[in-house]
Amino acid sequence: MDWLHGILNLIGLLFWVLWRAGTMPRPKPANHIAGPAPRQGTIFKHSWVYLLALVGLLVLRAVFYHQFGPGLDWIPSLPLLHESPHFRSDFFPRALAYSVLSFIRWLGALYFCWALLATIKPEADTAKMWRSFLRAQFGWLGGLSAMILWLVAILLSAGLHLLEAEWMSLVNVRSESTTFAQHLPALIVLDLRAAVYLAMGLLILYLLNSFVYFGEQNFWKNIDASGKRLLAPLSRLPLVVGKVDLAPFITLGLVYGLSFALRHTQLAAWLR
Asked: How far apart are CA 99 and CA 105, in angstroms?
């Protein structure tokens, strides 16, 4: 059941992304006298279908968990720092709470990834669609600086975790003795791990593109440009040995160490 739950969360994120992508600039009609040109428009008429599909997915899978979870002896849980509240699926309000709360955790982590991509986005013409896509994900805040977008991601994560705490208390799955407010910064940091893993993936692709020629596709041009922006903090250090630039390897090692330090068990041990 856990693997099915993860797949459904990914599908839910896809619905969210497609809904938000409805605000992206779209080309003018082909017969326009000025030719195809970007034009900011309102949300696509049919993009709301994806939002409705997301709501339907969260509700219907809660019904599915309620119907089949007890027979499979499946008791889902959401880990906090020092406890993992269990949501018994034989009680529908708890099944619904688990369906929604587990999704919004993924959503909060996704916006840290968007903030990272907004920080390292290339300025070349080949990345115009990338920039428009990220702007659409953040809505009217998308045109602001990367620092503001990081703040938005942090506040969103905090708000979602506060909602999570209240809903857990409402369905009586969280211990009243838990000092949730004290653990809130650590829970936000756990969401930040998604951006750390994304940075590792981008660095690996950047290294791969440095040693293997994949052609002149825009995707690899953008990977190269974003990788260089990730490495910018180390650009002034003498890290070139012969013809080998050690900066990507050092940065990848630092990011991997950070991902290790931000593990759930590690943060829980530090806060004991």
From this structure: 11
Tell me the per-residue pLDDT of 54-80, one tens digit each, with 9 for 90 and over: 999 999 999 998 888 878 888 888 888
Rounded Cα–Cα distance for residues 94 and 168 (Å): 8
Give the 3-state secondary structure of residue 191.
helix
- Rounded Cα distance between 89 and 120, Å, is 42
Q: Which residues contact 85 (CB under 8 A, 6 or more apart)?
A: 77, 78, 168, 173, 174, 175
Average pLDDT, rounded, for the chain:
82
Which residue do the tokens 């809904």 mark? 19
Counting beta carbons within 10 angstroms of the beta carbon of residue 217, is it exposed (0 to 12), middle (13 to 18) or buried (19 or more)?
Answer: exposed
In Å, how far from its chain's centre is CA 34? 38
- Angle CA 37–43–46, to nearest 5: 110
Q: How large is the average pLDDT for residues 88-111?
A: 92
Count of residues making up the chain: 272
Mean pLDDT of 189-208: 91
The fraction of the chain above a pLDDT of 70, given in percent, is 85
Question: Is the pLDDT score of 39 beyond 90?
Answer: no
- Outline where DSSP puts E strands in the chain: 26-27, 38-39, 240-241, 244-245
Largest pairwise CA distance in the chain:
67
Residue type, 2: D
Coil/strand/helix, residue 77: strand
